[in-house]
Amino acid sequence: MENETENIQPSPKAPKSKGTEEPKITLGMSELSSIIREAVKAAVETSSVESAKIIADAMKESRKPYVDPKQIANEEMMRQQMRATRQRLAENIKLSQSNCEHFQGSNEASDFVGQLSSIVKHRLDNGVVWGICTNCLREFWPTDVDYRKQMSRKSGNRPSQAGIRWFADPAAAAAVR
Ligand SMILES: [Zn+2]
Fold first, then answer.
1. Ligand 1: centre distance to CA 134 (Å)
2. Protein residues placing their CB within 5 Å of the ion ligand 1
3. Is residue 135 part of a domain?
4. Is residue 38 part of a domain?
5. Cα of 159 from ligand 1 centre, angstroms
6. Cα angle vertex 129, ends 124, 132, to 5°?
7. Is 46 within the bounds of a domain?
8. Taking 90 as the threshold, does the pLDDT of residue 149 lie above it?
9. Residue 47 within any structural domain of the chain
């Protein structure tokens, strides 16, 4: 046992270090120190640019307020409910508009239907008389086919009026809703 290590011989195939050595060059102390200085400077510059970017990114990330995922899910649910409600409302309005005769009391909830129109007339500042039904919220504009018929009926509502503006081209101003 004691002699085992003595039996191991160096391999004859192992390359001899002397034969593969590179040719030696001579550098002055000042040249060597300048090379080292440049190498160190390059290494420091590269790493400091990289670490500055990492720090900047981390700071940006840290400024973002934390939002609880539950809150995001909750808000999304509320948005969906709101959308559904709005859609139902819009459908109800459409339905009531298609059924409405625009008379006082032409509402499903009313027992009595009057002879007067339920349209409120309002003169806009461009001179256009615009109407809206107080039952179904349908609007009446001069471009509508039934505008004349509906707006000429006697209404239970007093017409209102905006301040009057004067336009260089009243026709063009009136064409704009
Ligand atoms: Zn109506």
1. 7
2. 100, 102, 133, 135-136, 138
3. yes
4. yes
5. 16
6. 95
7. yes
8. yes
9. yes
Q: Ligand 1 centre and the CA of 143: distance in Å?
A: 17
Last residue of a domain, which of 39, 56, 73? Answer: 56
* 158/85 Cα distance (integer angstroms): 33
Percent of the chain with pLDDT over 90: 29
Q: Which 3-state string (H, E, C) describes 100-145?
A: CCCECCCCCCCCCCCCCECEEEEECCCCCEEEEECCCCCEECCCCC
Q: Output the six-digit token pair for 141.
A: 């504009």
Choosing from 56, 71, 105, the residue where a domain stops is 56
> How far, in Å, from the CA of 88 to the mean position of ligand 1?
18
Where in the sequence is the domain holding 33, given as residue range(s)? 28-56
> Looking at the 3D structure of the chain, how many domains does it have?
2
Mean pLDDT (whole number) for 98-103: 89
Q: What six digits make up the tokens of 25?
A: 């060059």
92 within 8 A of 108, measured Cβ to Cβ: no
Q: Which whole number is the average pLDDT over 146-168?
A: 85
Q: Report the amino acid identity of residue 136.
A: C
- What spacing in Å lies between the alpha carbon of 74 and ligand 1's midpoint? 38
pLDDT at position 53 is: 85
What is the Å distance from ligand 1's center to 56 Cα?
Answer: 62
The contacts of residue 118 (CB under 8 Å, 6+ apart) are 102, 103, 104, 105, 106, 133, 134, 135, 155, 156, 157
Query: Could you tell me if 92 and 100 are in contact, meaning their C-beta atoms sit under 8 angstroms apart?
Result: no
